[in-house]
Amino acid sequence: MYSEDDLNSAIAAGAISRQSAQALRDHVAHLRGMPRGSEENFRLLNSFNDIFVTIAAVLLMVAVGSIGALVYAPLGALAVAALAWALSEYFALKRRMALPSIVLALAFIGGCALFPILLGSALQMEEGWFAIPAGPLAAIAAFAHWRRFRVPITIAAGAAALIVMAIVGLLAIVEQFAGVLAQTMTTPLVFIGGLITFGFAMAWDTQDPQRLTRRSDVAFWLHLLAAPLIIHPLFSFYGVFSGVGTNMWGAVAILATYVVLGLVALAIDRRALLVSALAYVLYALGEVVQAFGAIEASVSITTLVIGSALLMLSTFWTKLRMRVVPLVPAELRAKLPPLSPDMDNAQVAAG
Questions:
Q1: How buried is residue 338: exposed, middle or buried, by Cβ count under 10 Å (0-12/13-18/19+)?
Q2: What's the pLDDT score for residue 292?
Q3: Torsion of CA 219, 224, 228, 229, to 10 degrees
Q4: CA geometry: angle at 156 spanning 235 and 58, to 5°?
Q5: Is there a contact between 321 and 269 (Cβ–Cβ < 8 Å)?
Q6: Which residues fall within 8 angstroms of residue 94, CB to CB, at 6 or more apart?
């Protein structure tokens, strides 16, 4: 299986002309009956060797981290981060292996974030203070890893670290002046963080509407991060997670929220939004079914409804997009992915 990065690399090396590469993309799009970008290509495995290398790398990092921790706890985190970077030099930079690159990127960022926490604990610092540097350090680690290896998930990991850092920092400040208010601010701050992440994802997406470069892959991971950050606070507001059950209006709100999310996903051509929020919707609808008395069949009914809806949505995705996208303002519409193999957004705008 060849990725867009492989095609772009072949073009840059002169192994294939740009016209030939585009002809191949168009041919595959016609065979599948939808635009190439609309399939939201996501490379996780090149071959089974990716799994083999990933298992070996994880075992090696666990061993090195454990040995380092026996000497000095913070040393274990540093050892994992250093080893992850070293392995990335070969498996991410030279071999370009998808799954190992993702795991090694997360291991490097996680090791850097864990180091100040373990160091503060080892120095017996006041609880909480030693965790403050973890967010900025993780964000810096993500930025450094991205500049070197260009693994798309690192941007989302760095964004997550910044969001956590911002929320913890704001809550700490508010607690100093209004402790009671801080207890009610977490959910709204998470929601705001989700909206900011979604906007950041769209900034990457609109730079590559044809989805031919790594920018699209970066946006994919950011959308996966944004969806639960947006959905969880909304469902908490509806009382889904309060343990007191969900009334009729709560059920309507849940369904309306997921419909709106589906329309947004159709407009921007990102299924990742729906998949990332799927666990929340399954739980929420399960609560709704139980609230109406079907306790024993709640799981079956919920999965039947969601599974059928998502399967139908996938089947008619392109046709539904052709109805939704024309409703989007013209300026934004021009930055969205093409609607079909034979129609682009400019044609829709003209029509």
A1: buried
A2: 67
A3: -30
A4: 105
A5: yes
A6: none
Q: How many C-beta atoms surround the C-beta of residue 114 within 10 A?
A: 21
Neighbours of 84 (CB within 10 A): 26
- Could you read off the pLDDT of 231-276 as tens digits, one per residue? 889 888 877 766 555 566 777 787 788 889 999 999 999 988 888 7
Judged against a pLDDT cut of 80, whether residue 157 lies above it is answered with yes
Report the pLDDT value the prediction gives residue 30, as an integer from 0 to 100: 57
Residue ranges of the domains in the chain?
Answer: 33-140
Alpha helical stretches, state H, 178-213: 179-182, 186-205
The pLDDT of residue 2? 58
Residue 78 CB-half CA count within 13 A: 11
The DSSP secondary structure of 51-120, one letter per residue, reads: HHHHHHHHHHHHHHHHHHHHH-HHHHHHHHHHHHHHHHHHHTTTS--HHHHHHHHHHHHHHHHHHHHHHH
Averaged confidence pLDDT in the chain: 83
